[in-house]
Each structure stands twice: as C-alpha cells, then as structure tokens.
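ok posting inputs for the uracil job
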Amino acid sequence: MNIIEIITKKKNKLELSYEEIKYAVEGYVNNTIKDYQMSALLMAIVINGMTDNEIYNLTEIMLNSGDKIDLSLINGIKVDKHSTGGIGDKTTLVVAPLVAACGVPVAKMSGRGLGFTGGTIDKLESIKGFNTNVDMNNFIKQVNDIGVALVSQTGNLVPADKKIYALRDVTGTTESIPLIASSIMSKKLASGADKIVLDVKVGKGAFMKNIDDAKKLSEIMIKIGKRFGKQVIALITNMDYPIGKTIGNGLEVREAINTLKGKGEERFTKLCLVIATYMVSLGKNISVDEALDLVTEKLNNKEGYNKFLELVKYQGGNVLDIDICKNKYEIISDKEGYLVDIDSISLAEFANNLGAGRKTKNDVINYGVGIILNKKVNDRIKKNEILGYVVSNNFVDTTKLMDAFTIKNTNIDEINMIYEVIK
Ligand code: URA
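and the output
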C-alpha cells in the first residue's frame, strides 16, 4: 500500500478501505506521510466526499489514535454538548451549570478557539485564577462533588484530529461534511459521555451555509453515534448573526452570567434553554416538555447561576475579577432605518485583530477586548444612534466597523433561532 495510490483512488471517486484510511491517518500522525500528501488526500475528500462506511472507519481510526476518557465513576447519565462553531457562542457557559442544576452531570472537555470561532476554555480563562487544566481524577471528583466541570482537553485526546484539523485550517479543507462529522464525533466519543446533544450551526457565520447541508451533517453524526452505541440529538440552529450581544472572552463570560441571572438577550436565552432542555431530557429520560419546565425553573430560581458560581469557585476562579478592558469606543450609525444584518465574520475578524482570538496556535489572547452590540437585527435605528461598542484599553477607530451593519428601510422576518431537531 502507498499513499499515492490512496490519493489517486479518492481522486477517482473510489471507496477507500479501512486499511487504506488507517494507513493514511496513522502515517500522518507518525510523520511518515507528509503534510502535502495529507493535504492532497483531504482535498480529494472535500471534492469527492466519502461513503457512510468510509466516514465510520475514519471516525473509528481517529478515535483510536489517542486516549479515551472513562466517565463510569461518575454517577448518572452523562450528557455532553458540542457546537459546530459559532461567533459569540458562549452557550456552554450557560447550559452546563443549568443542566447540572437539574441533576444531570456535565463532565465537559472543551477546546480553545482557532480561526474566527471562539473557544470555551479561552473564555473561562478570562476569569482570574480559573484553572482549566484539571487532571482526570480531580475532573471526576469535581463532577461527583458539584455535578459539573469544564476543563480543557487532555493532551492526547484524538491526536489524529488535532494534527489533521490544524492542516485543514490552512489548506481550505475545513468545509466538508465527512471531515467535520468524523472530527467532531471522534472527539465526542473519546470524551466518554453516554449521550450527546449537537448544536449544528447554519448560516453566514457557520461552516454549513444551508439547511440541507446542516441536515446531512446532523444525520451522519447521529448515525455515527448509533454505530458506537451513543444516542445523539442534533439541533440545527441559526448562525446568520452573532450569538448574543458580545464577542470577546471576558465580555462573553459577563454576558453568560447575566443570562444565568435571567437578564440575557432574548434570542440567546432561548437558544440556551432549548439546548439545556434536550440535554436534560436525555439525561433524566423525561419528555422534552417536562425538561423545559425544569430548566426554566432552574433559570428563574437562579439555581443555574448559583451552580456557575460553585463551578468557578471549585476551579479556583474569582467571579468578581473578569478581564474586561476599561474603555468603550462607540460604533455610531450614519443612517436611519431597520438593522437588517450584522456581519458576524467581520465583527469576529475585527475582535480577533484586537487580540480576542488567535491567528496561529501560539498567539497570546487579550481576554479583555471585544465588541458589545447595542442593537439587534430588526431594531429600528436612528441616525447617530449607538449600534455597539468596541472594548479596548487602547484607542480604536470604529468607523470601519459600520460596514458590518446593514440598515434598510424595511425590516426582515422574525428570526428563528432553532430550525430543526433531528433525532
Ligand atoms: N469542529 C470540529 O471539532 N471539527 C470540525 O471539523 C469542525 C468544527
């Protein structure tokens, strides 16, 4: 067997065998297959796709490339969640404590941001003292003690995905259903939860640009879950606009806290409630309606908020000391009308240029910078009104950001946050 034959086979739209996929993935992890060879194979997969069997095999081979977490010492049904990547996506910070407050253990390993999407671990590290590097024994002890832990992935969780994902990021091979499905599901299966809720984002700021593709991605991930004995539910959700009203690590933590206090932006609160509801329904084996009542109660009576405080304290953080820069620079509207679009990718790029995210793996994050939206899509806007703020310690010229806001004479249809639930 050799890699050129394997690349050629995929180029010719033929199905790769288990052994061929294993040869390519393991060879790449062991450095016998070079970046340029793996890039060629990935591009052939992006263009010609993979059969379901190839996707199952790729997932299994990646899953077997590293450690598998054993959560059996944690009592109860463990339910994990995963988002395919969003801008301003701080749902985990709200959902994890809410679900834990309902009595469903959440043992969650999260990642850091790369490219335009943020990572939960970076957000949490904007809380002074918050320790995300927790070893396995303490991780399990924490979930048994307080019902929730949010930690960074261990060094050796699906190393094949780590290496391949970094290559995909710089070779234009991220947007592929087989590659995304196997990347996400290998990590979810390795993380050890019993059941999984997937938040599959669709829209202008997501990998999946249309609902049909988001459905295909959801369906294959559910099938992979079944194959490995895990129940998976996928929610197809709106990523046309930034999620919530902030982008930037410290700002997003503060927004998550306000949401848990019941003072969150309406669409974002709804998204969190729905994700938490499906997790609780799976974790407690109760109906979706019963789960929604329970989750709503835990939001309203602040038990979710108190669980967040408990989580931060347990992991060494000081919730009163969140890194947020002191100065706010206004983004002023030069027109009047209805705000019909907010370009999430432009805002994310702007925030990343200020230091909110990384362009390369070794960049150092500035946790305090970011953007606050003062208006949401469909709001009526007056000339010279404040659309939002850039938050930074140093002066920022915000005029260029005006292009990210589209103002027209008529408004658009009401925005739907949840398009479909796929089981
Ligand atoms: N998130 C992942 O973990 N992998 C992908 O390929 C895309 C989004």
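notes: Residues 84-85, 165, 179-180, 183-184, 207 surround uracil (CB under 6 Å). The two ends are 39 Å apart (CA to CA).
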